[in-house]
Amino acid sequence: MAISNANWIMASDTIGDVCPIFSRGWKSEKAIKKAEMNVSALGVYEATINNQRVSDDVLAPAWTSYEHRIQFQTYDITNLLGDDNEFRILAGKGWFSSPMPGWLETDNKKLRASHPIGIIAEIVICYEDGTSESIVSDENWAWAESKVLFSEIYDGEIYDASKKIVNWQPAKVLDWSKDVLIPQEGQPIIEQERVYPKKFIKTQKGEAVIDFGQVITGYVEIEIEAKEGDKISILHGEVLDADGNFYNDNYRSAKAKLEYTCSEGWQRWKPKLTFFGFRYIKIAKAPAYVSERNFTGIMVQSKLKKTGSISCSNAKVNRLFSNIIWGQKDNFLDVPTDCPQRDERLGWTGDAQAFVKAASYNFDVENFFKKWLRDLALEQYDDGGVPQVIPDYLPETEPSAAWGDAATIIPWQMYQTYGNKEALGEQFASMQRWVDYITNSTTTPGLWSGGTHFGDWLGLDAPVGSYTGATRKDFIATAFYAYSTELLIKAGKVLNKDMSVYEVLHKDIVTAFQKTYSKYLTQTEHLLAVRFGLAKNSQETADALAKMIKDNGGKMQTGFVGTPYLLHVLSDYGHIELAYTMFLRTEYPSWLYSVEKGATTVWEHWDGIMEDGTFWDTNMNSFNHYAYGAVADWMYETVGGIKPIEDYPGCAKVLISPKPDKRLQWFEVSRDTKSGKIRSRWEYFGDEVRYEIDLEMPGIIKINQETREVVAGKYIFWS
Asked: Are 289 and 350 part of one and the same domain?
């Protein structure tokens, strides 16, 4: 069903920051068989009928490339209707017109900030007598100033429960295209979990701080008996400083603030049109009787089914995996955001491609990425370049290698994980346009030279003052050029397309790469050369990488580009012991360093909190950044041994080849795939290892160089 007869409507007067609420009364005079409501907004909305919410969705219609598509939602409202009814729709800026990104002033940002807030709705009532009726948004709706005095993505929400909604006026029809409206495509955003205060803290500065024990994305619910006019003001933060005081300077310009004015008596309230990333709240203002018992944390996330689990004998590794899961839950809020707290919260393509394999093992993200990839294809520039973020809120910037390659890497991973050939076919033109963009924009045929790139972002070998690592940017660009071309060829062959032109191109890229880059200078250069099949001798290159790491005291020097491949390359080329050593390392830099520091999500920087308890920086220091959580796919594939076979997408047939290490007493991993559930467990008994494998599909089990093909079932081996 589409919204065909309704109009976009808006407030008829300028009301500043106050969020408008729209209303329409309607009386039922016949018996209703079924009633549905189709609704959307330029912004975000909350719809109610007779003071009852029409659904559990929050922050609808969610975030798309608004210029091209805006989702609408369809709700069955039959049971909400009575004889005398009132439809109300509250609307706020959301992602549509909030000042995003917070750190950058551009004409595009100013244009978005000037966009009006509006709603569109169509209610279709079918009667028992076979007739039907439609109620559509138009001038017959009224609007008024709501109790939400301010709401915005970065700065938070101000709500006055004591305010009376009065002075209703006729709504104004808004001239905005309805052609962009599409039915709900992504997973709805819903409230997923509740977290309760773990501790009330009175800091050295005399601040009242509540610790919820877990970094979440969402908001707090306030439940209180109060007097009319009492005020509560809350700030949000992820960590405390070295002295145990409240800290959120890393939020940069995002105020992340709630202000609530109470009505008389008992009341329960939570924000309606915004969200935060936080573990701690600071009660900046409240009546004296307010305590931690008045607050509950609510985590919101796209509705995703959990499909992967990992557990083992090492509590720190278990905490790391929990942090990875929480980082994904917190950042998969309709788009794969980099972080949920500061004045950013954008769909960075580089972070998404680095983490996509782990993401698809942890949760069912097929529809989530299908929707996002459609926006990526729509946002591609005329020359095929891929924006740095999707939706594109940075259109003034240049495409970057490893970021733009999300156009090829993610569709191919979706096909590998879910086996949906139709979805791969839908993205093929976008994949092809990206590869063609590189071919047409490079200054050196066969290489990707020139351009503006992020390099090995946050590489630990970066020169002082640089974020981009020591790895040569043209090296990274050419390596990903080859990789994207290879993935395009694979996708084309799955789709029965003639890929001969791109096969020649790939051969030329490899030849040019090997001629130009005869020596590899950094850990990441070694990794990419091996992982993307560009090294003349992969084993020698992997051995050289292992020596480089050992000579560096066992420390990684990689950033966002190299780190996802690090342990895979070491393990695949005979350096499994070194891979485990790096994985289990607790000193900086390592995955477990943040665990030692009490992290409950994955950090943006390995040393976001340094050894002395001080912070890396205030400028760019998120404590909820999922990219380095890509190590989870190594945990699934190598430690647990569940390795998908490329020729059998969707795990129609799977390879089970775990690699135990005695530093872990036992390890268990499971995945719920399109072809069924897989579980792999190994455990040491003295020097012997017991392997237990459950398969709901045929597979190949390879343990200690012994390989056997098996049908679905349960298998136990000793070695």
From this structure: no
Catalytic residue list contains 46? no
Number of domains in the chain: 4
Q: Is 344 a catalytic residue?
A: yes
Same domain, 248 and 342: no
Q: Are 95 and 22 contained in the same domain?
A: yes
Measured CA to CA, the distance from residue 644 to residue 655 in angstroms comes to 6
Whichever domain contains 687, its CATH number is 2.60.420.10
Strands 156-160 and 257-261: parallel
Spot the catalytic one: 145, 344, 366, 486.
344
Distances in Å between the Cα of 142 and the Cα atoms of 123, 183, 298, 670 are 16, 26, 32, 54
Q: Identify whether 589 is preceded by a cis peptide bond (ω within 30 of 0).
A: yes
Tokens describing residue 165: 């909604």
Would you give the end-to-end CA distance of the chain in angstroms?
Answer: 60
Print burial letters for 611-642: b (CB count within 10 Å at least 16), e (below 16).
eeeebbeeebbbbbbbbbbbbbbbbbbbbbbb
Phi-psi region of 457 (alpha: psi -120 to 50; beta: other; left: phi over 0): beta
Whether residues 634 and 669 fall in one domain: no
Could you tell me if residue 3 is inside a domain? no
Instruction: Determine the structural domain holding residue 376 and report its residue range.
Output: 308-639
Average confidence (pLDDT) per 10 residues, the chain, 719 residues = 88 96 94 97 98 97 98 98 96 97 93 94 96 96 98 98 97 96 97 97 97 98 97 98 97 98 98 98 95 97 98 98 98 98 98 98 98 98 98 96 98 98 98 98 95 96 91 98 98 98 98 97 98 98 98 97 98 98 98 98 97 91 97 98 98 98 98 98 97 98 94 95
Last residue of a domain, one of 256, 275, 302: 302
Give the domain-ending residue among 253, 270, 302. Answer: 302
- In this structure, the strands spanning 642-644 and 84-92 are unpaired
Q: What is the pTM of this model?
A: 0.98
Cα–Cα distance, 534 to 513 (Å, whole number): 7
Distances (CA, A) of 712 to 156, 622, 655, 676: 52, 44, 12, 10
The burial of 485, by beta-carbon neighbours within 10 Å (0-12 exposed, 13-18 middle, 19 or more buried), is given as buried
Please identify which residue in the block is written with the tokens 């005869």: 518
Gap between the Cα atoms of 68 and 64, Å rounded = 8
Q: Are 482 and 510 in contact (CB under 8 A)?
A: yes
CATH number at residue 275: 2.60.120.260
Are both 543 and 589 inside the same structural domain?
yes
> Does residue 157 belong to any structural domain of this protein?
no
Please check whether residue 280 lies inside any domain of the structure.
yes
